[in-house]
Amino acid sequence: MANKKKKNQPKLSPSVQLGMIALLIPIAITVCVFAFFAWKELQTLTIFEKLAKQKELEEIQQNFDMNIPEQYIPIYVAAEEKYGVPWTLLAAHHRVETRFSSMSSLVSPAGAEGHLQFMPCTFVGWKHSSCSGLGKGDISKTELMNPEIIQKYGGYGVDANGDGIADPYDIEDAIFSAANYLSKNGAVDGHIRQAVYTYNHSDEYVNKVLHYFNLYNDYHDELKEVVLYKEK
């Protein structure tokens, strides 16, 4: 049987093809424009903004030898707002004292305790009958953490979270206590070096704290804005 010849398919004329292309071009442009603005709108959504803030935070932290733990910054900032001490100074103390609480023990050989390394007599108050010398004293845990006892003996310990206990091993209480101490020793009036020296009578210590303070303070507002935004 002879093969049937295939019928030639009709082809679009050049003019029709040009017409279709002319129609498709504005459609394609419209789709691209819509996609562009849709993407820009998506970028304003919270998740994209938070990702951008996270990237900004990571870039800033690259300037430090140790990252400032993100979860501590809102506590430093809250203490700054209450006591007027730069939050970056509190971060610097925390870095020098216990490497942001990463040390294996939060008790020093001299007897300083907690996240910000308070001597018991400084925390509970030097009016305590056992306080002398470096300030280790003979202070029970109950006395050390009792806000009423602290008030009685003129200590710097603070119950920051309102749980009825001023605990140097509680991060909020420790940071607020440090802010309280630095504030009452000149930091709130701009006498930063004096306040730091009072915290620890060592020029080497003062220089270390001020080194980190100046480093962190270059990013005071940026870090504060980034972390507080991410908490929303």
UniProtKB/TrEMBL annotation:
Domain Transglycosylase SLT positions: 152-187
Q: Which Gene3D superfamilies match?
A: 1.10.530.10
One Pfam family from the record: SLT_2
Which keywords describe this protein according to UniProt?
A: Membrane, Transmembrane, Transmembrane helix
Q: Which residues cross the membrane?
A: 21-39
Q: Is Membrane one of the keywords UniProt gives this record?
A: yes
- Decide whether keyword Transferase is in the record: no
Name-wise, this protein is Lytic transglycosylase domain-containing protein
- The source organism is Lysinibacillus zambalensis
